[in-house]
Specification:
The complex is a heterodimer.
Chain A: H1 2-17, H2 20-40, E1 49-55, H3 60-75, E2 79-83, H4 87-95, E3 101-105, H5 109-114, E4 122-125, H6 130-161, H7 167-180, H8 186-191, H9 198-214, H10 216-219, H11 221-227, H12 231-236, H13 241-271, H14 280-305, H15 311-329, H16 339-344, H17 348-362, H18 369-394
Parallel strand pairs in A: 1-2, 1-3
Antiparallel strand pairs in A: 3-4
Helix pairs in contact in A: 1-13, 2-9, 2-13, 6-7, 9-13, 9-15, 9-17, 13-14, 14-17, 14-18, 15-17, 17-18
Chain B: E1 3-14, E2 17-28, E3 32-36, H1 43-50, E4 58-63, E5 66-67, H2 73-76, E6 79-82, H3 94-104, H4 109-122, H5 138-150, E7 156-160, H6 168-183, E8 187-192, H7 195-201, E9 204-209, E10 212-217, H8 219-224, E11 230-237, H9 240-248, E12 253-259, E13 262-267, H10 270-283, E14 287-294, H11 298-306
Parallel strand pairs in B: 3-8, 3-9, 6-7, 7-8
Antiparallel strand pairs in B: 1-2, 1-4, 4-5, 9-10, 11-13, 11-14, 12-13
Chain lengths: 395, 312
């Protein structure tokens, strides 16, 4: 059986090498898209927010932002801040492109916070500069969250003291509450728990996204043999039906592994975006994730392909599933740790990228094992019904 | 003659449709046997079971004494299959196509090289062996399709309608190849709905219709089943069915069928019965626009046995 399966693998490999569409899907498009996306989304280490500040309050809490948070971010090189006397000036500066966004601290802001009523920190943005707008909002949200805690603390203390506390003590209490936690960092705002740099993330995302298309060339091979008339001849030969299926699956596996490894190398060499640390642990870790991802893609696509009767049907179904799983898995943009981050784990793509992130963070093979196990589980759980359905249809 | 292929009570259904219903026949060593029947008669389903592509619901196939099933790799070694549709890889060259299938059949390196060279010579593709099959003409593809089936020197070669959609020149070349195979001692099972191909190639013919083998024998034996009768075709103007009914009443007419605008009769001594037939047509308020009298052939045998034309 193995001999016959290997003969089919060798024959299919020869056919695939002559099929330009495989080259395009497996190698050219992923590298090209990674390059394009890497130009659209700048590296976070190069990113700098140019923002304006309008302090109409002038109080202590406003100063906590203008003299605490913003200078700290300026010191880290993430923000360059410019002060404006009023909101109109800030709007003009945004329209003129002098700054990408502006924070407006309204009059009475400090009083509202220290009285426990909360406060509204407004953000002016330029819709054409989406990333800057998101970062500006994120910084404001982080500070607001902090102030909400302060307001709650103050309100609780004021209520407990039933109005006995003097205003000076309430303000001191607010200052202590504000100092208790550091404001959320910009890196967290941009990348949440991601530790891969954006280009590596995109390159790996594109690779696994197109992996799901690439393996379909093998998975649909059985249908293809039927469509081009060669299946009866294979079935009439002294080889078993499982040998044919095994040959097709092995072919898809080899094609998937080769395409992923080539993309990993291309990503590192041509885009300067390695998928993992340049250590033996890093290389093995990437290898483990690649193998696990290919297993997952084979299982998922085998199941999807089992619902099709023609190559075209299979291609359409598999494309839809590959696209949806890719979007859920966050291959086109980092999904962070929120709801989208949780949703990403419903997709092999999400686990693959998470595994690479964990590897980048912990630098050990052990870090990738949970993601690899999840990927293999995806593959096995989907492959079993896929194989049973295909077996029932063909035997 | 010793039987190389024995089919006994082959039956196969697809849902409620019984495609093959109790077909039994034998093919001897070195014999060319034709399965003649219209499209949908059960020919391809029968050979799919014989070649081990399909499991029979009932009945058995034995080839060279070995029982054939989809898992019977030993029996499959004895069989070469030439499917009705082209069964080759267009992106591989002729040599690569042959090499792949030779490896599947386990031919060792020396034997493989020798057989591939021989087959390329036989099918006339030696000069084009390094070109991709997709670049070949239809006839060249057909020849390669047959060459792959013969590659491992099977004892039984099954050809499923190999001339369908082939130009006359290539068709003739294919028929000559099959004649040569029989001369070389290979047994051939040939399915067709072309009566003239069956008559030209086959030592014996099985007539199959609606899953049943309705008659079997040599051409002479099959024609004898409708007696020493002539076939009379009357081209009718008017009610063809009424004319056929009227002709059926004429003495010496053993059968009379309406077929398109014709009445087809099997008649003893046609020359002496023609006036009575013309009168019968006139009595049915129809008229005869043309008359053709000929000896019966396999087409007529099929019509006689099934009441339908072979190409229906």
């Amino acid at each position: 059986m193995i001999r016959a399966a290997l003969l089919i693998v060798a024959k299919d490999a020869r056919l695939r090498l002559r099929d330009r569409s495989v080259w395009i899907f497996a190698f050219v498009v992923p590298v090209a898209l990674t390059f394009v996306f890497s130009q659209i989304f700048p590296d976070q280490t190069d990113f700098q927010l140019s923002a304006g500040i309008v302090d109409l309050d002038g109080g202590d809490v406003a100063a906590g932002f203008t003299e605490g948070v913003v200078p700290e971010l300026e010191g880290e090189g993430f923000v360059t801040a410019t002060s404006f006397p009023d909101e109109a000036a800030a709007r003009t500066a945004i329209e003129d492109g002098e700054v990408a966004a502006a924070w407006v601290i309204p009059a009475g802001f400090t009083a509202q916070v220290t009285s426990g009523d909360g406060g509204e920190l407004r953000v002016l943005v330029n819709p054409d500069r989406a990333l800057s707008a998101e970062v500006a909002r994120g910084i404001a949200d982080g500070y607001r969250t902090q102030l909400d805690r302060v307001s709650l603390t103050v309100a609780t203390a004021a209520t407990a003291a039933r109005g006995q506390l003097p205003q000076a003590e309430l303000e001191a209490l607010a200052d202590r509450a504000a100092a208790a936690d550091a404001i959320v960092g910009i890196e967290e705002l941009i990348a949440a728990d991601r530790q891969l740099d954006p280009t590596s993330y995109l390159a790996a995302g594109m690779a696994i996204f197109f992996l799901f298309f690439t393996v379909t060339f093998g998975i649909t091979g059985y249908l293809e043999e039927g469509q081009q008339g060669t299946l009866p001849r294979l079935l009439a030969a002294p080889i078993s039906l499982p040998a044919i299926h095994l040959g097709k699956a092995l072919g898809a596996f080899v094609l998937g592994i080769v395409s992923m490894l080539v993309l990993a190398l291309a990503s590192d060499l041509f885009l300067g975006a390695p998928w993992g640390p340049a250590t033996s642990q890093g290389i093995v870790g990437v290898g483990v994730l690649v193998v696990a991802a290919v297993i997952a893609s084979l299982g998922v696509m085998a199941l999807v392909g089992s619902f099709a009767k023609t190559v075209e049907q299979a291609g359409n179904l598999q494309s839809i599933v590959a696209l949806v799983l890719g979007l859920i898995g966050g291959v086109f943009f980092p999904v962070g740790a929120g709801i989208l981050g949780q949703l990403a784990l419903a997709s092999p793509h999400g686990w693959f990228l998470r595994g690479l992130g964990d590897l980048a963070g912990e630098q050990t093979v052990a870090a990738v094992l949970p993601a690899a196990a999840a990927l293999v589980a995806f593959g096995v759980v989907t492959a079993i019904p896929g194989i049973l359905r295909t077996w029932r249809a063909t035997s | 003659m010793e039987a190389l292929l024995t089919c006994e009570g082959l039956r196969r259904s697809f849902g409620k449709l019984t495609a093959v219903d109790g077909v039994s026949f034998q093919v001897g060593q070195g014999e060319t046997y034709g399965l003649l029947g219209p499209n949908g008669a059960g020919k391809t389903t029968s050979i799919s079971m014989i070649a081990g592509l399909l499991q029979a619901d009932a009945g058995e196939v034995h080839i060279a004494g070995e029982r054939m099933t989809p898992r019977a790799n030993g029996a499959k070694q004895h069989v070469g299959l030439v499917p009705q549709d082209l069964a080759l890889y267009p992106d591989l060259t002729a040599r690569e196509n042959l090499d792949f299938f030779a490896r599947l059949y386990g031919l060792d390196r020396d034997r493989r090289t020798q057989r591939i060279d021989q087959i390329l010579e036989v099918i006339g593709l030696t000069d084009r062996q390094k070109d991709r099959a997709g670049t070949y003409s239809g006839g060249m593809k057909r020849r390669l399709n047959i060459g792959i089936g013969m590659l491992h020197e099977p004892r039984l070669l099954i050809l499923d309608e190999p001339t369908v959609g082939v130009d006359p020149q290539s068709r003739n070349a294919i028929l000559e190849s099959v004649e040569n195979l029989a001369t070389d001692g290979m047994s051939v099972l040939y399915t067709t709905h072309y009566m003239e191909e069956a008559e030209r190639l086959c030592d014996r013919i099985g007539i199959i219709d609606q899953g049943l083998l309705v008659a079997e024998g040599t051409r002479r034996e099959l024609i004898a089943t409708i007696g020493e009768q002539d076939l009379v075709r009357l081209k009718i103007t008017g009610d063809v069915t009424a004319a056929a009914t009227a002709c059926d009443q004429v003495e010496g007419v053993s059968s009379s069928d309406a077929e398109d605008d014709q009445v087809v009769c099997l008649v003893d001594q046609a020359a002496s019965r023609l006036p009575a037939l013309l009168s019968a047509v006139a009595s049915a308020d129809a008229s005869v626009a043309g008359v053709e009298v000929k000896e019966p052939d396999l087409e007529d045998v099929f019509l006689h046995l099934t009441g339908r034309a072979l190409r229906d």
